[in-house]
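User: Okay, second chain of the day. Same drill as before: sequence in, structure tokens out.
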Amino acid sequence: MLTRAALVSVYSMVMAHVSLLGKMAVVLNPGLFSEKEINFLNEKDYQWSDEGELVLDTAKQTFKVRATVAMTLIAKKVSHFTGLSEDYLIKADLRVNLPQFMVELQRSRHLSTGRLDARFSGPAPDLLAEYADYDPQSTAVEGAFVAAFNGYVREDLKFGKDLTYNTSSGDANRAWDWKRAGDGRSYGFPGSPNVEQDLVEAMVTNPNLHIEVENGLYDLATPFLATEYTMNHLELPENLQKNIKLQYYDAGHMMYLHEEDLAKLKANVGSFLDNATKQ
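Assistant: Same drill. Structure tokens below.
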């Protein structure tokens, strides 16, 4: 967790150039700061040398200023990319989880943002809530899917009499056994299964195995950047790495909800299967 105490180290990485003068002073090259950031420092009445460098005269002040500047600059960047206010990010110590993001992003508009698809928004019943208590995407489409499923299963297939279809089960999720079947080994940290090594093993064992990942750009549940990172860090030989292909859609987790991407998904999957069978 990135705490204020750890920001001194983060600051070193962000600024990339900090010079120590003895044990009691620090100078920061102004070239590391944008005009807005220099204005911020000026507003805080920090001292600038004749050479145009920021000078801090005590170890205590050095720590305080470095932490303050680091927190502010990082919050500014994170705010730019997320749409959350700098003030909120600083209060959250730069650590905002997904349910917090969902409820905070459009709080001023009395809306909550979708998890599976951030294009969807829904009313925020509690403007003081810290966490989103539902997914607007799910509530928008779940009824149609459940009705279609029940109609097909019960009317066409004549199955399910006196049975209840649960679209999702919290009880099943909580009772799920994350251990590997057979040998009882854990996937890793509890609650965070990781099957990267299984994928690597499968691709090494079968060099003709091809992988295609379909990514929705508005998917907050399985973000495409996390997928990119995972696939780029499998440490596969180059001849196997090229067997992995990533596709992108201007939609969320269920990209087929977007009509244009429904056609695109069908074409991509069809092409993937055709090409794989020609190997």
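Residues 1-28 have pLDDT under 50 and may be disordered.

User: Thanks, on to the next one.
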